[in-house]
Design goal:
4 helices; four-stranded antiparallel beta sheet; alpha+beta; 2 domains; three-stranded antiparallel beta sheet; about 220 residues; single chain
Length: about 220
């Protein structure tokens, strides 16, 4: 039975091109390795480089009353932000969403999405935190029933989670990691000669080139309940 990777970060053709091979004898094994490498890249970065088909709700704990770290999302379509100041799980307060502008920026609403304009150094980037504006504050303790240090998740965000594209550095890192996974059975002592790249030394971590490509994409994962 043919195996197809779920939400792959690189294509089978990209890997075969890097391996300088055109036959299909190892396609299933390569697809398994692509699947494993894609999850390794996501685990390393703390990000998911594909987007859900529908919105879903997640709850978060704000570190301060002025900022809340979120998981990645790239569209405000279907976005709902609710808070639970009493810590009873009811989330009665719904905050007003910012309004999208034609240039990709957003204005108004009860909170500010960051990074501003959904960009970092000109590159499309997911929203990964929100900042209350005007007189609004993030609830962080949940009233007298939940004092420090017992901090409950009092912010619920409904969104279409994930990235809506795969950056080229991420895709290339997945290719390197796929090749390392594919060659692992040929390296019982941790290294194997490889005609195209010389000696390939296997490491318990990511391929060093993959790790270098992913440096700018790594983040501490938001706390999700």
């Amino acid at each position: 039975m043919t195996f197809n990777a779920a939400n792959p970060l690189c294509s089978l053709q990209q890997v075969k091109s890097a391996l300088r091979t055109t036959d299909d004898l190892d396609d299933d094994q390569l697809n398994y390795c692509i699947d494993a490498a894609s999850r390794e890249v996501e685990n390393y970065t703390g990000r998911r480089f594909y987007q859900d088909g529908t919105v879903s709700a997640r709850v978060f704990k704000a570190d301060t009353p002025f900022l809340c770290q979120l998981d990645d999302f790239m569209t405000i379509t279907g976005l709902i932000v609710q808070t639970d100041p009493n810590g009873d799980g009811s989330f009665p307060n719904t905050w007003a969403n910012p309004t999208p502008n034609g240039d990709g920026s957003v204005t108004g609403g009860d909170f500010q999405l960051e990074p501003l304009n959904g960009l970092i150094s000109g590159q499309p980037w997911p929203y990964e935190r929100f900042r209350p504006i005007r007189s609004f504050l993030d609830p962080i303790y949940g009233g007298l029933a939940y004092p420090i240090p017992f901090v409950v998740a009092q912010i619920k965000v409904t969104a279409k989670w994930g990235w809506n594209y795969i950056p080229s550095e991420v895709s290339r890192a997945a290719v390197y990691q796929t090749i390392q996974n594919f060659k692992a059975p040929d390296a019982p002592f941790g290294a194997t000669p490889f005609a195209e790249t010389g000696v390939l030394r296997l490491r318990p971590q990511l391929h060093p080139r993959a790790e270098a490509l992913l440096q700018n994409y790594s983040r501490v994962q938001a706390l999700v309940a």
